[in-house]
Amino acid sequence: MRKSTFLLPIVVVLVALGLSSLFIVDEREKALVLQFGRVIDVKEEPGLAFKIPLIQEVVRYDDRILSREVGPLEVTPLDDRRLVVDAFARYRITDVRQFRQAVGAGGIATAETRLDSILRAKTREILGSVSSNDILSSDRAALMLRIRNGAIAEARDLGLEVIDVRLKRTDLPEANLNATFARMRAEREREAADEVARGNEAAQRIRAQADRTVVELVSEARREAEIVRGEADAQRNAIFAQAFGKDPEFFEFYRSLSAYEKALQGGNSSMVMSPDSEFFNYLKSPSGAAK
User: Fold this and answer.
1) Domain ends where: 120, 153, 172?
2) Same domain, 253 and 239
3) Distance (Å, rounded) from C-alpha 42 to C-alpha 56?
4) Is residue 160 a contact partner of residue 87, using CB atoms and an 8 Å limit?
5) How are beta strands 29-35 and 47-50 bridged, if at all?
6) pLDDT tens per residue, the chain (291 residues)?
């Protein structure tokens, strides 16, 4: 009985020591075996592993892709139009030994603080080398790639691999919005005034062309009318001359009737003429012959 009393605590201690020497590495993580703070072994494959109890300890790190939000960052592009940029990065721990050496016991928190500094510096450097229009256009995909490539080398010193960097928001600072809107409004008003001026110029040019065309058409029509009228008068005179040549007396009679028609209209001035005047020869003659 007394012997069992002494053996039981020893068995319990041995079982505890045996259990404490075993640990399981999950497939979603990597583990470091440390002895007095120094890295003894790296466990990257999932499964059961061993360590020396009480002397060695196990530190686990996430092996999955992690995300890191980069807080609002003010940048100044080449055109001096300040922008507020929000970004995020995706990364993973690729070299846990180097990661431990770089960040020590601070772990992920310390690593993310240093990664923030790297991303902010690269974002300012890359976005400061282009204009704001490039940042706000479809070219931003190429800019994000440049920021990622620039951060990869420095992040590798931390045992990290930067997989992707994305710009979530690129806005103007609140203080600059009103001035920017006013400038944009002035530019649009100037463009509208230019369009109106060009429209008025085009309208005047078209109106002048139309007026010139009207003058040309009217002048051409009048010229053709005068030509037709002159040809008609010539044809009429030719007919009269031919008629006069065939019957002089009829021609005299026709001329007298024309004179009567023009002279004896209402509203004309009064005429005092002798009844024996030659003007009335065809009115007095029963046969119409001149006396």
Assistant:
1) 172
2) no
3) 13
4) no
5) unpaired
6) 555 565 656 655 555 555 556 777 888 888 888 888 788 888 888 877 777 777 878 888 888 989 888 888 888 888 777 788 888 899 998 888 888 888 888 888 898 999 999 999 998 888 888 887 887 777 778 888 888 999 998 898 889 999 999 888 777 666 666 666 777 788 888 889 899 988 989 999 899 899 888 888 888 898 889 898 888 888 887 877 777 777 676 677 677 767 766 666 666 556 666 666 665 665 555 554 444
Beta strands in the chain (DSSP E): 22-25, 29-35, 38-43, 47-50, 56-62, 66-75, 83-93, 160-171
∠ CA 265-270-276 to the nearest 5 degrees? 95
Torsion of CA 186, 187, 193, 199, to 10 degrees: -160
DSSP class per residue in 20-58: HTEEEE-TTEEEEEEETTEEEEEE-SSEEEE--TTTEEE
Residues 29, 63: contact at Cβ < 8 Å? yes
Count other Cβ atoms within 10 Å, centred on residue 260.
14
For residues 58 and 128, state if they share a domain.
no
The two tokens of residue 220 are: 């051409």
CA terminus-to-terminus distance, the chain: 191
Q: How many Cα neighbours within 13 Å face the side chain of 120? A: 13
The answer to whether residues 132 and 168 belong to one domain is: yes
State which residues form the domain around 70.
Answer: 66-172
Judge if 240 and 251 occupy the same domain: no
Q: Which two tokens stand for residue 162?
A: 């930067």
- The total of structural domains in the chain comes to 4
Question: Both 122 and 206 in a single domain?
Answer: no
Measure the CA–CA gap between 115 and 123, rounded to whole angstroms: 12
- Please check whether residues 57 and 73 belong to one and the same domain: no
Using the 3D structure, point to which of 13, 42, 62 is the last residue of a domain: 62
